[in-house]
Structures are given as structure tokens and as C-alpha cells.
Specification:
Layout (H helix, E strand, L loop, with lengths): L1 H4 L5 E4 L13 H10 L5 E4 L5 H11 L3 E3 L10 H9 L10 H16 L2 H16 L6 H7 L5 H8 L12
Parallel strand pairs: 1-2, 2-3
Helix pairs in contact: 3-4, 5-6, 5-8
């Protein structure tokens, strides 16, 4: 209420405690309580948004005005397209091709850094998020964590079984 009285444009609440860190479940009821407590400013909810359906469920559960996405977008850059579609009433979701997503992300990093080796070093930290939930052996994960060129990335990604469906929640 103080923030509202001081003129903030909106307030966001992450519904997980500091003690929980990255474990446990976000308590969306706290977001609903905040929404009821403030008067006119928008309330944004955060916590456990891994899909567009999660975001819609949070809004329905809490009455919040929007969502804030944190770790849920890591390895899922298409999540924002899905969020826009879901909040526009569409049930159609993006089903990406892992090879295309990884390659395009790496290309954009190479372009951003203007250096292939540096861009490929940068993609390494994202690879684990992209592969989360996929049955990929430790040796291959290790090799992908050492990628130093787009050609090396292509060779390793070509060894993945990319016909498997995207892992669920």
C-alpha cells in the first residue's frame, strides 16, 4: 500500500520464500492476497510459470493482472509467443524443433559477440536448459558443454534423437 501511495506503476510478487530458494512450490494464494490488498495498481504474479497454461492458471487462481517469468523461459525462448497466444485466447502452442532452436540461438550469440568461439562458449550455458528432461547421456552433455564452433555444435546435435517429443512439465 505504501508503494501504491508513493506512485509505483505496478507491483510484482514472487510467491516463493527466500528460504525455499529454487525448491518447493510457489504459494499463489499470497499473490491473491496482495491483489485484494492493493487498490488500483496492477499486481503481477511470479513463481512456477513454466508454460503458457501455468500463466493462465495463475491469473485465474489469483486474479492478478499479469505474470512475470523467471527461470521458466530458460531453454524455452518460445514461451513468450505461447504466453501472448494464451492470453489472446488461443490454445495453439509452439512446438519447436530442438535442432533449429539450438542452432539459431548459437548463431545469434555468434552475431552478438561478433566472434564464433565466444558465441559458442556462450551457448554452452543454455544447452543444459534446452536438454532438460531429454534422455541425453552424460558424455554427450559433457561434449556439448565444450562446444567451440557452430560446426561442432551441428555434429553433436546430429547425434541426438530429435524425434522424441518435448518433455512435459
Amino acid at each position: 500500500r505504501i508503494a501504491e501511495e508513493e506512485g509505483v506503476a505496478a507491483v510484482a510478487l514472487h510467491a516463493r520464500t527466500a528460504a525455499q530458494a529454487y525448491s518447493g512450490q510457489a504459494d499463489w494464494d499470497r499473490i491473491a492476497e496482495l491483489k485484494q490488498a492493493v487498490g488500483t495498481i496492477p499486481v503481477l504474479g511470479n513463481g512456477d510459470i513454466w508454460s503458457a497454461d501455468d500463466a493462465v492458471a495463475m491469473v485465474e487462481h489469483t486474479g492478478c493482472d499479469g505474470v512475470v517469468v523467471g527461470r521458466g523461459c530458460l531453454g524455452r525462448p518460445w514461451l513468450f509467443t505461447d504466453l501472448a497466444a494464451a492470453f489472446a485466447g488461443s490454445h495453439v502452442r509452439v512446438v519447436p524443433d530442438l535442432r533449429e532452436v539450438l542452432r539459431r540461438h548459437a548463431e545469434l550469440l555468434v552475431e552478438f559477440h561478433q566472434d564464433e568461439a565466444r558465441g559458442c562458449r556462450d551457448i554452452r550455458k543454455h544447452i543444459a536448459w534446452y536438454l532438460k528432461g531429454f534422455p541425453v547421456g552424460g558424455d554427450l552433455r559433457h561434449q556439448l558443454g565444450l562446444v567451440d564452433s557452430l560446426a561442432a555444435l551441428d555434429r553433436l546435435v546430429d547425434t541426438l534423437d530429435l524425434d522424441q517429443p518435448w518433455p512435459g512439465d
